[in-house]
Structure formats: C-alpha cells, structure tokens
Design goal:
The complex is a heterodimer of chains A (about 900) and B (about 110). Chain A is of the alpha/beta class. Helix content of chain A is about 45%, strand content about 20%. In chain A, the strands form 6 sheets. Chain A has a 7-stranded antiparallel beta sheet, with helices on both faces. A 5-stranded mixed beta sheet of chain A has the order 13-15-16-18-17, sandwiched between helices. The longest helix of chain A has about 90 residues. Chain A is rod-shaped and about 215 Å long. Chain B has about 110 residues and is mainly alpha-helical. Chain B has one domain: Up-down Bundle (Four Helix Bundle (Hemerythrin (Met), subunit A)), CATH 1.20.120.160. In chain B, helix 2 packs antiparallel against helix 3 and helix 4 packs antiparallel against helix 5. Chain B is globular. Classes of the chains: A alpha/beta (about 900), B mainly alpha (about 110). Chains A and B meet through helix 17 and helix 19 of A and helix 1, helix 2, helix 3 and helix 4 of B.
Chain lengths: ~900, ~110
Amino acid sequence: MKEVRHPSRPLIYAVSAIVGAAFSLVLVMLAWQNALEAEKKEFAFDSILLRDTVKLSASVAHNSLDNIAALVEGLDASVIATLPVFLKSLLARHPFIEAISFHRSGVPLNHLSKDMALRPDAVGDPSPAGPTILWGDSGGDLYIGRSPVKEALYNDQILSDPRFADALRAAVDTAMVVPGPPASATRGIRPFTLIKAIGTGPAHGAGVNQRSNTVPGAFVTIILNPGHLFSESLLRDDVSVNLYTESQGVTGRQLVFVQRAAVAPENANFSIGAFKEETLAQFPYYSMKLVVEKQVLWREIDKGLIATAMVLGIGVTTLIVALARAREIQAWELSRRNQEIEHQVSLQTKELAVTRDAAIKASTVKTEFLASMSHEIRTPLNAIIGMGELLRETPLTRMQKRYVGVFKKAGEALLALVNDILDLSKIEAEQLVLENIPFNLRTLIEETADIHALRADEKNVELLCHIGTDVPTRVKGDVARLRQILLNLVGNAIKFTHKGEVVVKVSSNPDISDPYRLLFSIEDTGIGIPADKIATIFDSFSQADSSTTRHYGGTGLGLTISKRLVELMGGWIRAESVEGKGSVLSFAISLGSAPEPQARIATDGSFSLKDVRVLIIDDNSTNRLILREVLSAQGALVSEAHGGAEGIQVFREARRMGQDYAVVITDCHMPEVDGFAVVEALRTAGGSCKTILMVSSSQLSNDMSTANALGIGAYLIKPVKSVDLIKAINVAMLKTLDETQDHIVTTPLPERRAENLLILLVEDTPDNRLLIKAYLRKTPYKIEEAENGSVALQKFKTHAYGLVLMDIQMPVMDGHQATRAMREWETEQGRDPTPIIALTAHAVKQEMDKSVAAGCTEHLIKPIKKETLLQIVQKYLPVSPAS
Amino acid sequence: MRLRSKIMAMRIVRVDPELKDLIPGFLNNRRQDALTIRAALAQEDMETVQILGHSIRGCAGGYGFNALSELGGILERGAQNRDSEAITNAVDELQAYLEQIEIIYD
C-alpha cells in the first residue's frame, strides 16, 4: 500500500521550534549567568586580598605619616637626628614607602637638597637583603629613601608643578595629610607624595606667596611607590588595575598606578565582558580608589553547565518538536481513519441498499412467481379436468369412458396437490396475508357441513353441527381460510370414518373470558390414528400409513396447511385419537368481534316456539342433543326418542295422556323403523301434529317424493341448520302441503302483462319434455324445445323468449354453462335479462348457489309439481288465468 | 326387504289427469328401459345402466311415480358402484312395480 506522505504544517513546527528554542535560550542564559557569576565570585574572591592589601597599605602609609609628623612635631633638632633609625625601620617594613623626608624650614622644596648628598646607610641596617637606603640631611632637612633624590619625587617636573605648591598650601591649611601630584609614569607606576605640615598652623601660612612655589613651614613627606602597594603574587597579570588618589581641592583625581591585563592577542576576540571591583580607602582629606578590572575570556568560563544546558535545551526542543509532530501525525491519522470509516460506511450503506433492493426484488419475484405459477399450473389442469368432463358427456365406449374417468380423476388429484403445494409455499414464504372481514360464523359452519353432506351420507356417516349457544354469530376474520381449515378437517374425518358420526363442534373457551376465542373440534368415530403416528400428522407429506395414500388418497399437505393457517391466526391445533375408536381434531383461534345484527333465529314474528311440545326422533344421540338445544333456546318443550319404535311409543303415550306433541321431527334413515314408517304411524294415530322429516341431501329427490306422498309437513336437509329448523317448523305449522319448496327470489317481478309468451324448454330427457309440455298444454304459452344447453344457446340468440326453463344436468352443455353464456350474450347485446328457471334434481344449497351464480332467476327442484310450475310461469309471464 | 315394502307402499299413484294421455307411453318406455337395463347388466355395461337409471330418476318423479324415481336412483348408484346385485334387485322391483301399478287420476 502506498505510503501516504504526511503533509507538514510549518506553523506548528515553527511554533514548537520557537518554544523549544526559547526554552533552550533561557536555560543557556541561566547557565551562562551561573558561569559568569561563578567567575565573578571567583574574581571577587581573588581580588579581595589585593584590595585589602592596598587599602591596608594605604592606611599604613597614611598613618605612618601622621605618626611621624606627630612624632617630629614636638621634637627639637637633636632628636630629629635620631629619626633615621626609626625611619629606616619603616622603610624596611613597608616596601611601598619609597622615601620619607622632613623639611624644617620653609625652604621651597624645590630648592631642597639638590645638593644634599645621599649616602648609603651604613648604620643599623641589619639585613643584607634589605633595601638600599640612602639618607642625607642638611640644614635640618632629612631624607631617607630607596632612590636617589633625583630619581625620586624631587625632580623638576614635580617641583615646578603648581599643584605641588597647592598641595603644600593645603597641607598647611588643613593640617592633614594631603597627596601631591604624581610623578610621570614609569611602566604605569607614578609615585606620589603624601604631605603633612607640622608645627605651624594657618598663622604661619600667612604671607604665603600664592604665585610662588615656596611655602613656608615644616613638612614631613612620604613618597609612595604605588607599584609596591601590591604584593606581586597578588597582582595577577590578567587583571587591569587602576589606582587613583582623589583629593577634591588640590590635585583632583590622579592616576598613580595602571596595569593593563595581559590578554593574549588570539584571545582578544573571545572577550565576553569585564568584571570590575572598586575599593576605596578613605582618609580625611583624600581617598585612594582601587579599580580592578578583569576581562572575562571565553575559555575561562566553565562551559560544562552551559553545554549541559544547551544539550538539554536542544533535547527539549527536539522533544517538543517531536511531540508536535507526533500530535500532528496522530490528528492526521485520525482524520484519515475517519475518512476511511466514512468511506466504508457509505460503501456499506450502498451495499445494503443494493442488498435490500435485491431482497425486495427477490420477494417480489417470489410473489409474482407464486402468482404466475399458480395461474400457469392451474390453467392447464383445469383444462384437463374440464375436457375430461366434457369428454365424458360425449358418446364413448365403455373402455373410453373408463380411461376418461381415470385421467379426470388423476387431473383432479393433481389439481388438489398443486393447490395444496401452492398454498403451503405461500404460507411458508410468508406471502399470506390474513383477511379480516365480518362474516356469519354459523353460516360458515353449516355451509362447510353442507359441502361434505353428500359424501357423508353416501358412507352412511352422520354429519352433525353443534354450535354452542354462547358462540357469537357475527365475527371478524379470514372466512376463506377458516373454511379451508374446516373443509380439510371435516373432509379428513369423513374420509377416515366408515360408520358412526362426524360432529363439528364450536364452543367458546371456558377458561378464557374472551367470547371470541373459540374452540373448534371435529370429532369422528373413524379408524383413528396410531399413537406413534399422531405426533407427525401435521408434518408435510406425512400420512399415518404409507398405504393411506393408496387407500384414501390425499396429498398429505392438508393438515400441514391447516396447522400453519391456525398458527397464523394466533391459535393452536392438536389431535387426539384412539386407534379404532375415533379421533378429535381441535383448534382454537381468536376471531374479532363484528356488529351483531338481531339474531334472526327467531321466527318471522308470526310464530313463536314458546311452550310448543316437540318430539325429536333420531337414532343418533348427538343429533338429538343439537336439536334439543336449538329448540329449547327458543322456549320449546322438547322430548326425545331413540329410534322409530320408541318414537311411536312415546307419541302414543303422550296422546293418551292428552299431551299431544305439536311437532314431531324425525330422522329419515333409522334402523328397523325408519322415518317413513314413523310418519305413517303418526298419521294413523291421528291428531293434528305436524311432522318434519330430516332427510339427507343425497336422497333428497327420492325421499322427498315419498315424503310428499305421505303428507309430511316439511323437510330438513341434513346436516340440519338451526335457522332451517325453525323455518321448517314454521312452514309445517303455518303453511299447507303444497308450499314446501324453497323459492329463491332474486329478480323483481315484472308488473305487467307478458307480451312474449314464448317459452324455451331446455331438457335432455324426452319424457320430461313431454311432461312439462303436458303441464303447460292448457296455457296460452308457446313452447320451443332444446335437448341440451348448446342448442338452447343457439335458439336463444336467434329468438326472443319470454322465459327459459333450464334443466341443469344435461350433456354437451349443462344448464349452468348455458345460463352463463346466455347472460353474457344479453349483456353484450344490451338486452334485459330473460327469466331463466333452473330445474334440478339436487336440492343442495351448493347447487342452488351455483344456479344463482350462473345467473338463474329461480330454481325448481325436481320432480316438479304442475301447480308449482304454473305458478312460476305465471309469475314471470302473467296472463289471465287459463285454467 | 325394505325396498319392496317401500315400493309397494307407493303402488297407488295419483297422477294429474292432464297427463293421462302421456301415461301409457311413459310406462311403456319404462318397460323398455327395464329390458335394456337387463341386457346391459348381462354385458356388465354399467354406463348404460347408469344413464338409464339417471334418466328414470329424473323424469319419473315429475309424472308422479315416486317409486320409479327411487328405483332409478338405486339403479344409477348401483351402476356407479358396479353393484350387479343391487341393479338386479332394482330392475326386478321395477318390472314388478310396473305390473302392479294402480293409477288414480285426480
């Protein structure tokens, strides 16, 4: 990966460098100061001795003069002659005293002793190494010193110096020690005199001739050699020394000694500074000032500390700079990383968006796939099945019929399987959305039972519905899916039951107070489920036995789908069974509440069941129970009898007791004594009781005709619906024999005289056609015939008919198809719908619904009574009564 | 013999006088049908039996011959279930019934 150059930011570095430099500078300066201080202290320390020595010496000289003067003042001439010894010792002791002289008279000093012979002292000087002392006296003046007079102060230069005379005069005036002007320098040394006047006071100063150099009076003088004020060892040659005498009045400041520091030329450039020490020796009239100066040379400085300081400073600077850089790099790294992270995040967001879109797309694809698959698969299957049906209606040989039967069955099985699989995929793919619409729960249960009623009856199995009275009628939920579940469970129950009963029970859960949490159970007395298989029956494609598919058919998905649906509805499903005895499949779900219209189980208002005595005769106890519940809820007084024989007995008993039953409801198919026998017996027993016969839908057409012949009040189609039960009782109690048919009115009646009296009769059986024509013989209607739906359709399109009588079960094109086609054509042509009356042998509600759905106006059940037919025709094609 | 009793219970048939003309032809057709069914049964031609059974069931009731209607149903179902015995039974009853019928026109 390419190394990315870190972009430097000069400012930071500059600042940190400056800070570091400042710091180092401070350090170095501190060290420098330190070093200098050290040097200074050393120098001071070194110079102390020198200075003190000078001071001391100056003091000594001064004091000596005072002492000598004091001494001489009182002495006369004879004593003075002894002075030399004392003076000699002074000289010997103090090297800086060059000479001591004494002048008695006011002889001008410049006249003094020019010719005084100075001779080496031979008297009393013990030390051979001592100075050569010369002395001379003349005329009361005395001189003792190391140098000859001429070399001493008494040279012309000095003596002619007016300052000298001034000094003398000052001495006389002040009676103090006064310094005279120094001689000319010899190697920086300028000897000078200290003068003290003796004896005479200012009075003697009178008459001083200001202009002359002669000053009367007596004087003692010391000639000082400043060069010897210092001990040699004390005077280092790297210092500059200046010695001054300062007297205000007379000589001012006079430099008496100078030494320049000896600085090697090569070091001259390394001079850093100078230390200066001053010492002042203060005397009454004058002072002596010593100035010691030292040049500080670079090489003398103790550079160790400075070096350390510099190193430290540099180190610190480096550190600071490094720190700054590190921080910089860190910040840059951070920002770079942030950038990277942001980049990553945006990348990932994009990826996620892509993925999400892909997922949505996949889901959409799935849905579309399912939908199109569903359609794609069902269409050809429906074609196969449909064609099979059509084919079967055509003239076929026995073998052909059999083959057609086989592939039609196969197609149906395949369709069932495909539907189940698609359903399951839908559920599994979570493509299923439950509806939430209000519906009538009772109607749903009863309809579901209806659908299986035929099959149940064919197998001689009772199919019963038992809906608890506290179960709400109107609920909200997914009615189609609930129907699916019920159909599956009831279908299974019937499939696996060969004798006994199948009861569909709905109750509200006693444990939970919610009235919309309902428990559905389908109990059967079938072959049961083996204990070891019961756990897996809800699994896909599992059936209790591998032979089950062969014997009983089915896809093995029904229960799986039911389970999924129940769970989707937030409920549970379970199975209990005893092999050989029966099974109970139960599930509980929560439905929503829907506004409950007035319970219309009550009668139409014209008839109440309160206190009506009712006898229920049935060999199935569950059915008796159900009926009892419904009727008791309406206030009827219900008795039961098991089977026909008992029923007749109970009836006769009651009659004998004078407590006739107003209504007797009896099952049709009972062992030994069946419903017909009961009715017959009741008729002969007399009384005005009305009988209601419960027939199974499969035998409706057969049983009904018998029932009619026997004068039965009304009939109920099993499974019995509570609504129908009440209605049937109503019918039996209030209506006459003739009006036992159900008429479903779907279109308003034309309130006018019919104009078109042409009737199209569509019926395949010739005998039936004859029959109907015979019925209508005496009427003004004209009849045209068609032997199947296809012919009928053609005729319908070419002529205008006032009414169509449409048989349903016909070859080529059945009644429903023909009706549909006719309605379509009417819509296309913009014509008013022609009344189409369906004639069917099946009185099943399903059938009736189909007729209505196809577009039939009314529905008549075969066999048709003449009066019924006439009434219907009159209804739609009113004419004046012909017969 | 429940069937017999039932059928015989309906021996007396009340027919609409309007249909009086049609009855002979009708009954004749049914006699024909019975023969056809027997023949078909002999050949195990269940399809024919079924069709005829269905047909009889359908139209007999309209004329008022409920017993015939019932027999037609039995024949149809028997043919569906390939139950020769039931068919034989029924067709016997059919023919017997046709002989014993008493028609009252009112």
